[in-house]
C-alpha cells in the first residue's frame, strides 16, 4: 500500500509541476502577444533556413518584413508580397509578373507574416523548455506541441528574449524530419514608414503582367 501511495504521490507531483510550467510558458507567450500589439508598426530583418537530411536539402535565405496591424510588406527569396488590408499583391521581378488576389480575413488557415509573432495563441500544448545565453541575451525557449494529431509538425520551439519579450527564433520540426529555423537579426518598432508602404503602386511596374485572381 505504501509503495502504491508513493507511486501516486510522485505522479501527482510530476503532473502538478508540468501544469505549472505549462501555465508559465503560456503567460510568457501572452506577454509577447501584448508587446507586439502595443507597437504602431514592426520592422524585422530575419534569416530563414530549411534542413532535411533525408532529402539532402539545406537552404538558407534572408528577408525582411514590415508589419502594421494586419498590413504587411514582405521581401523574401526575391519575391515581394504586399497586403493593403483587402488584397494581396505578389510581385515576382524574375517573371515581371504581379499576382493580385483577395484576402479572406476569416480564413484561420491562411498563412500571413503578421501571424509569425502570434501564431502560438491557439492549437498548441505548452511546455517550459531550456534557457540559452545568446550574445549576452537570455533566450527562454517554450515548446509547442500541436493539439491536432494530424498536424505535420512534431513540435515548435519559440525562443523569447526575456528582457524585451520579443521573439528571437522559431524552430519548427516536422514529423518527416524537416527542420526550419527563423532567426530575427533585427527587430525595430514604431518606424517612420511612408503612407504608401503597404500599398501596391502599379506605376512602379510598367512592364509587368498583372494577373488578377479576384
Task: Offer a few descriptive terms.
214 residues; globular; 46% strand; outer membrane lipoprotein receptor (LolB), chain A
Describe this structure in words.
This protein has one helix at 2-37, and strands spanning 42-52, 57-68, 71-76, 79-83, 87-92, 97-102, 124-134, 137-146, 153-161, 167-174, 179-189, 209-212. The protein has one helix and twelve strands. It has a twelve-stranded mixed beta sheet with strand order 7-8-9-10-11-1-2-3-4-5-6-12, covered by helices on one side. The chain has a single domain (2-212), classed as outer membrane lipoprotein receptor (LolB), chain A.
- Separation of termini? 70 Å
Task: Specify the biggest β-sheet.
Answer: 12 strands, mixed
At the fourth level of CATH, the homologous superfamily is: Lipoprotein localisation LolA/LolB/LppX
CATH names the topology as outer membrane lipoprotein receptor (LolB), chain A
Shape: globular
| CATH architecture descriptor text | Clam
Order of helices and strands: HEEEEEEEEEEEE
Present the secondary structure layout.
Blueprint: H1 2-37, E1 42-52, E2 57-68, E3 71-76, E4 79-83, E5 87-92, E6 97-102, E7 124-134, E8 137-146, E9 153-161, E10 167-174, E11 179-189, E12 209-212
Parallel strand pairs: 6-12
Antiparallel strand pairs: 1-2, 1-11, 2-3, 3-4, 4-5, 5-6, 7-8, 8-9, 9-10, 10-11
Amino acid at each position: 500500500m505504501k509503495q502504491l501511495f508513493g507511486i501516486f504521490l510522485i505522479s501527482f507531483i510530476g503532473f502538478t509541476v508540468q501544469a505549472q510550467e505549462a501555465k508559465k510558458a503560456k503567460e510568457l507567450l501572452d506577454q509577447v502577444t501584448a508587446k507586439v500589439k502595443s507597437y504602431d508598426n514592426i520592422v524585422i530583418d530575419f534569416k530563414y533556413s530549411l534542413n532535411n537530411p533525408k532529402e539532402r536539402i539545406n537552404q538558407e535565405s534572408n528577408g525582411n518584413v514590415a508589419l502594421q496591424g494586419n498590413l504587411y510588406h514582405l521581401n523574401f527569396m526575391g519575391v515581394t508580397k504586399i497586403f493593403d488590408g483587402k488584397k494581396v499583391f505578389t510581385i515576382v521581378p524574375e517573371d515581371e509578373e504581379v499576382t493580385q488576389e483577395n484576402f479572406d480575413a476569416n480564413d484561420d488557415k491562411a498563412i500571413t507574416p503578421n501571424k509569425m509573432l502570434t501564431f502560438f495563441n491557439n492549437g498548441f500544448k505548452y511546455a517550459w523548455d531550456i534557457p540559452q545565453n545568446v550574445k549576452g541575451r537570455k533566450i527562454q525557449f517554450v515548446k509547442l506541441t500541436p493539439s491536432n494529431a494530424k498536424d505535420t509538425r512534431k513540435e515548435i520551439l519559440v525562443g523569447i528574449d526575456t528582457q524585451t519579450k520579443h521573439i528571437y527564433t522559431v524552430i519548427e520540426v516536422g514529423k518527416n524530419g524537416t527542420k526550419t529555423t527563423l532567426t530575427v537579426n533585427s527587430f525595430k518598432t514604431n518606424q517612420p514608414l511612408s503612407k504608401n508602404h503597404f500599398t501596391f503602386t502599379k506605376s512602379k511596374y510598367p512592364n509587368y503582367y498583372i494577373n488578377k485572381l479576384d
